[in-house]
C-alpha cells in the first residue's frame, strides 16, 4: 500500500506543516510518496527522503507558474496513481487542493484530522467546533483524502531515510482549471508585518484591554521580549486593533514558545489558535477563566497594573 | 446587474463548555443559542454590497431545519432581498457533498451569477462545500478571499496567500468562499428588521436523500486537570514573572 502527501515548499525547502503531514503519513504503515507542484527548491527532495519519502513526484509546466487550486489538484491527481490515501497539510492551499481532488473524484474528504483509528476501514479522528469536540469519521472511498491539523504530530526525520527518487511530471491541465488563477501578489509585509505566526513570544490582549488606548503596555512588553502582539476577536470586532492581529479559529494560529494572554477569557475559538503554544502565562482578573485554568502559569489581577510593573522590572534588571 | 446567492449555516453558539447528545451524534444545543460563522456574516455583507453596486439582488440560502429561518431573517435584516430555505429535518445527516448537490440544484434553477459561501462551517469545518458546488456547476471558484467586487462581469477577489495579498480576476458566473476580516458586517436597522420579519421565505424540499457525512460519533477530548502555577496576584508578581522570563531565556 502506498500513500501520497501533497507537500508545500517555502523559499528554503519543505514547509514545516508538510513535514508534519509526512510524519503523519508514516504512521499509516505504508510507503510514503510526495508530490511537489511548481518549483522544487534545492535540497527539498533530500529533505523529503530524510523524512521517509520514497518517490518525490515533481510537477512542472506553464500551468503551475501562478497558483490555481484546480490546476494544482490536477498535478496531485496525476501523481496519486493507486495511492490508498492522499494527505495534505491543513493549510489554506492544502485544504483547497484536496477539496478540488475530492470534488473531481467524488470521494469523501476529512479536514482537521488529528489521528487515525486503526480498523479495517479507514476511520479518522478530527477536530470539529474549533477543536472543542472530536469527530470519528469514516473514509470508505479510495483514495481517502485527509487534511492533517497543524501540530497533530511533530515533524521528525524517519528512523531509516528513504532514497527519495525524483520523478518529473508534466500533467496536462484543462483550460477551465486555469480560470481562477492568481493574477498579482502584493508582498508579504502587508499581511504579517509583526510576524505573529512565527514569533517565539506572543503577548495577547483581549476585552480586558478596555478600549483602543489599552494596548500601550502590552505592545511595550511584546517589544521588550522581541515578540509580537496578538488579540482576541472581541478586540478586532470592536475595531480596537486590525484583524490581521487576531488569534483564533478565524484568525492566525500561533505556536510560540511563550504566549502571554492578558485579559483574554480563553473561549474555545480563541484557544483553537493558541493551543500549540509551548508555555502559556495568563494574566487575568478572574482565576476561574478558562485561559487561567488551562495555562501553565498565571498572575491574577488587573493587566493595567501588572503589565506595566513587568515592563518596569524588565527595564530595571537590564539597567 | 449581478444576482448573488450567499450560503450560510445555522450552528450552535458554543463559547465554553460543550455537551454532547446521549447518542454522541450531535452537540446538545438545548442550552445554547444558534449563530452563523463570522466568515458567513462577512459573505452576507459582501453579497449585499455587490448586489447594491450592480443593481442585482442578494439572496440568502441555507440548508437546515425550519428553525434556520431565524438565521435567514437576520441576513434579510442586513440587506438581503430574498431568502431560500432547503428544509431538512436532520441537517447532520447531510455531508458536504450532499449540501453542495442541494445548493447546486437551487443555483441551476435560479441562475444566480455569483455564489458566496463561508470558507468553512463553524461546526463541522469541512472546507469543501464551495469547491464541490463549483465543480457541480462547472464554474470557477476562488477560496478564502476577504473581498470581492464585480466590474463589467468580472469578479475581482482578494485574499491572503502564502507570499502576500493575492488578487484573482475571473469571469462570472463564479463561486467564492469568504474569510472574515475584509469587510465590517453592518448592524440591522430598525427598518431592516421590520422588513425581514414579514419577508416571504422560499422554502424548498431537498432533491435527493443524503449520502451522509461519514460521522461515526462525536467525543469530547479528555478533560485536562488544571495544573496552573499561580505566580502571584497584582503588580507585586512582576518580579516572579521576570524570574520566569529569565529562566525561559526570553528576557534577553
Ligand atoms: C464562529 C466563531 C468564531 C470565532 N473566532 C474567534 C477567533 O478567531 N478568535 C477569538 O479570539 N475569538 C473568536 N470567537 C469569539 C470567542 O467566542 C470569544 O467571544 C472571544 O474570544 C472573547 O474575547 P475576549 O477573551 O477578549 O473577551 P471576553 O470573553 O469578554 O473575556 C475578557 C477576559 O478579560 C478578563 N479581564 C477583564 N478586565 C480585565 C483586566 N483589567 N485585567 C485582566 N483581565 C481582565 C476577564 O476576566 C475575561 O476573562 C469566535 C466566535 C465564533 C462564534
Automatic annotation (TrEMBL), chain A:
* UniProt KW Glycoprotein keyword: no
- Name the cofactor(s): FAD
**Cross-referenced InterPro entries, in alphabetical order?**
DHS-like_NAD/FAD-binding_dom (IPR029035), ETF_a/b_N (IPR014730), ETF_a/FixB (IPR001308), ETF_asu_C (IPR014731), Rossmann-like_a/b/a_fold (IPR014729)
Which SUPFAM superfamilies does the record cross-reference, listed alphabetically? Adenine nucleotide alpha hydrolases-like (SSF52402), DHS-like NAD/FAD-binding domain (SSF52467)
Is DNA repair one of the keywords?
no
Keywords, A to Z, come to: FAD, Flavoprotein
Give me the comment on cofactor binding.
Binds 1 FAD per dimer.
Which residue ranges does the record assign to the Electron transfer flavoprotein alpha/beta-subunit N-terminal domain? Answer: 3-182
In the record, what terms sit under GO molecular function? electron transfer activity; flavin adenine dinucleotide binding
Residues at which FAD binds: 207, 232-233, 246-250, 263-270, 284
GO BP term, example: fatty acid beta-oxidation using acyl-CoA dehydrogenase
Instruction: Give the record's family classification.
Output: Belongs to the ETF alpha-subunit/FixB family.
Oligomeric and partner information: Heterodimer of an alpha and a beta subunit.
The UniProt function text for this chain reads: The electron transfer flavoprotein serves as a specific electron acceptor for other dehydrogenases. It transfers the electrons to the main respiratory chain via ETF-ubiquinone oxidoreductase (ETF dehydrogenase).
**Descriptive protein name:** Electron transfer flavoprotein alpha subunit apoprotein
Task: Identify the species of origin.
Answer: Pseudonocardia thermophila
From TrEMBL, chain B:
Q: How does it assemble?
A: Heterodimer of an alpha and a beta subunit.
| Domain Electron transfer flavoprotein alpha/beta-subunit N-terminal, first and last residues per copy | 25-213
Q: Which organism is it from?
A: Pseudonocardia thermophila
The molecule here is called Electron transfer flavoprotein beta subunit
MF annotations from Gene Ontology: electron transfer activity
Source taxonomy:
Bacteria, Bacillati, Actinomycetota, Actinomycetes, Pseudonocardiales
Which cofactors are named for this entry? FAD
- Please name the PANTHER family in this protein's record: ELECTRON TRANSFER FLAVOPROTEIN BETA-SUBUNIT (PTHR21294)
Write down the Pfam families for this protein, in alphabetical order: ETF
Q: Which domain of life is it from?
A: Bacteria
- Region annotation (Disordered) ranges: 192-216
User: What does the function comment of this entry state?
Assistant: The electron transfer flavoprotein serves as a specific electron acceptor for other dehydrogenases. It transfers the electrons to the main respiratory chain via ETF-ubiquinone oxidoreductase (ETF dehydrogenase).
Amino acid at each position: 500500500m502506498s500513500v501520497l502527501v501533497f507537500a508545500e515548499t517555502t523559499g528554503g525547502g519543505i514547509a514545516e506543516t508538510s513535514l508534519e503531514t509526512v510524519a503523519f503519513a508514516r504512521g499509516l504503515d505504508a510507503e510514503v510518496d510526495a508530490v511537489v507542484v511548481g518549483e522544487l527548491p534545492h535540497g527539498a527532495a533530500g529533505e523529503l527522503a530524510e523524512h521517509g519519502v520514497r518517490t518525490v513526484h515533481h510537477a512542472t509546466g506553464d500551468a503551475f507558474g501562478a497558483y490555481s487550486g484546480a490546476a494544482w489538484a490536477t498535478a496531485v491527481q496525476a501523481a496519486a496513481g493507486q495511492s490508498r490515501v492522499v494527505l495534505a497539510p491543513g493549510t489554506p492551499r492544502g485544504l483547497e487542493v484536496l477539496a478540488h481532488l475530492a470534488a473531481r473524484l467524488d470521494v469523501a474528504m476529512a479536514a482537521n484530522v488529528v489521528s487515525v483509528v486503526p480498523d479495517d476501514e479507514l476511520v479518522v479522528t478530527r477536530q470539529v467546533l474549533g477543536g472543542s469536540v472530536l469527530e470519528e469519521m469514516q473514509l470508505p472511498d479510495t483514495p481517502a483524502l485527509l487534511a492533517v491539523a497543524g501540530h497533530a504530530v511533530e515533524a521528525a526525520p524517519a528512523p531509516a531515510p528513504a532514497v527519495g527518487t525524483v520523478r518529473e511530471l508534466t500533467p496536462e491541465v484543462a483550460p477551465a482549471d486555469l480560470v481562477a488563477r492568481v493574477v498579482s501578489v502584493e508582498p508579504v509585509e502587508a499581511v504579517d508585518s509583526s510576524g505573529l505566526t512565527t514569533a517565539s513570544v506572543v503577548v495577547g490582549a483581549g476585552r480586558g484591554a478596555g478600549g483602543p488606548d489599552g494596548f500601550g503596555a502590552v505592545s511595550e512588553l511584546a517589544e521588550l521580549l522581541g515578540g509580537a502582539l496578538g488579540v482576541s476577536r472581541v478586540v478586532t470586532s470592536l475595531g480596537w486593533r486590525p484583524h490581521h492581529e487576531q488569534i483564533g479559529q478565524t484568525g492566525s494560529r500561533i505556536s510560540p514558545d511563550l504566549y502571554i494572554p492578558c485579559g483574554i477569557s480563553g473561549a474555545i475559538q480563541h484557544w483553537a489558535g493558541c493551543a500549540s503554544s509551548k508555555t502559556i502565562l495568563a494574566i487575568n482578573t478572574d482565576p476561574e477563566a478558562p485561559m487561567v485554568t488551562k495555562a501553565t502559569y498565571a498572575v491574577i489581577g488587573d493587566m493595567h497594573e501588572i503589565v506595566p510593573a513587568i515592563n518596569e522590572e524588565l527595564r530595571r534588571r537590564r539597567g | 446587474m449581478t444576482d448573488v446567492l450567499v450560503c450560510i449555516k445555522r450552528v450552535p453558539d458554543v463559547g465554553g463548555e460543550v455537551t454532547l447528545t446521549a447518542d454522541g451524534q450531535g452537540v446538545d444545543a438545548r442550552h445554547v443559542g444558534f449563530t452563523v460563522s463570522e466568515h458567513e456574516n462577512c459573505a452576507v455583507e459582501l453579497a449585499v454590497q455587490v448586489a447594491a453596486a450592480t443593481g442585482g439582488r442578494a439572496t440568502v440560502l441555507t440548508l437546515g431545519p425550519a428553525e434556520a429561518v431565524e438565521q435567514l431573517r437576520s441576513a434579510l435584516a442586513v440587506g438581503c432581498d430574498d431568502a431560500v430555505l432547503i428544509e431538512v429535518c436532520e441537517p447532520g445527516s447531510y455531508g458536504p457533498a450532499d449540501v453542495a448537490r442541494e445548493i447546486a440544484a437551487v443555483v441551476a434553477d435560479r441562475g444566480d451569477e455569483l455564489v458566496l459561501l463561508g470558507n468553512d462551517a463553524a461546526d463541522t469545518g469541512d472546507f469543501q462545500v464551495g469547491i464541490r458546488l463549483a465543480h457541480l456547476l462547472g464554474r470557477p471558484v476562488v477560496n478564502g478571499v476577504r473581498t470581492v467586487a464585480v466590474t463589467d462581469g468580472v469578479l475581482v477577489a482578494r485574499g491572503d496567500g502564502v507570499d502576500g495579498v493575492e488578487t484573482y480576476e475571473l469571469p462570472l458566473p463564479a463561486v467564492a468562499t469568504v474569510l472574515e476580516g475584509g469587510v465590517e458586517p453592518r448592524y440591522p436597522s430598525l427598518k431592516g428588521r421590520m422588513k425581514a420579519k414579514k419577508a416571504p421565505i422560499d422554502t424548498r424540499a431537498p432533491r435527493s436523500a443524503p449520502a451522509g457525512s461519514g460521522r461515526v460519533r462525536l467525543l469530547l477530548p479528555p478533560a485536562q486537570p488544571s495544573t496552573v502555577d499561580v505566580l502571584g496576584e497584582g503588580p507585586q508578581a512582576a518580579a516572579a514573572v521576570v524570574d520566569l522570563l529569565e529562566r525561559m531565556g526570553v528576557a534577553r
